[in-house]
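The methods section describes the discrete structure representation at length, but only in general terms. What matters is that the chain and its backbone geometry are given together, residue for residue. Nothing conveys this as quickly as seeing an actual entry. For illustration, here is how one protein appears when written out as sequence plus structure tokens:
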Amino acid sequence: MGGALKDTRDWHFIGGSSIWEMAFEKRFVRAATWACGLTVMAISVTVPAGPAKAQAYTYSATIGAGALLSDPVASAVDIAQGRLLVADRNNDAVLVYDTTTLAHIATIGVVGVAVPLDNIHLNQPSGVCVDAANDHILVVDGGNERVQIYDAKSLAYVATIGEPNVVGIDNAHFNRPASVKINPVAGQIYVADSFNERIQIFDAKSFRYVATLGTTRVPGTDANQLIQPSDAEYNPLTNQIMIADRLNERVMLYDATTLKPLSQLGETGIPAYEAGDNAHFYAPTAIAFDAANKVVLIVDSGNHRVQIYHAQNYKFFRTLGKAGEDGTDNKHFATPKGVSADPAHSRIFVVDSGNSRVQVYTTKPAR
């Protein structure tokens, strides 16, 4: 894979802030950590190149038991504020939980109320992300065709990307946006503009349009085409953008600097149906980079599982859930749609959409 690091990297977490340095071949990259499915811990360590050590993933808790959630679809962790944010689509809100106690502590939007079209209400939010560098929470307000930006501390409204409730194919509009993520190195926002068959890139400070991945309104199977992409996540170990190209049954890998396609995971147009098939996906929906464990987590929604890969080389590592089997116990998922990592508490959050819950796993080195 392009951009693979081959020697030691020093990760310096400066004070209690969200700034990190990555030393590689005498080049330094300074960037804010992010929480769109990942953040990093406030410690100073040196880690060798190569795959993560084997991890034991143990179920530890459920969020949403007792009908508190209704079709949750995405989550993000805000390390600085100690918060888990869950986009609860059918409740038209983002629910905020304490990452220590897992108790509900706040809400963005008005639960169960999608109107009027203003900056207080949300309509079927489909994605959520934390931009720690700019102290912002970004919410994909899917039913209103926009991305809403809030202050990470106060949760007050800040700005909007996209024209509310207006579908379009130019760079000022979306068509059913599905997710939002941050590339902290480039200072960019990635929006999966699903029905426009593209990923839209914006500047994280000015919110101005930067570039497009995919071909607008032209679905297809070649490397420069996508079919209803549902997520785009940054992998800092390879400097790649990982795109959940949902209806192509693949994860596309793009160079984050040149924006050129490099390779892919999965086989285009070939879904996985066999329980032991780890080479294919069935409607991959979301991706998270877990900085603490140096792994990539891919929600293989149609197979009711989360696939875990080494972030350095994308070698398959292990599966959460039972491939091809949905269920309501703690060993199964039902059409999961989101995943995020909380390295401060050694946790993984899987948004188990069909069961209207978030499943919590602890991650520790296997003995």
Remarks:
- The chain has a mean pLDDT of 88.
- The domain at 35-40+50-365 is CATH 2.120.10.30 (Neuraminidase).
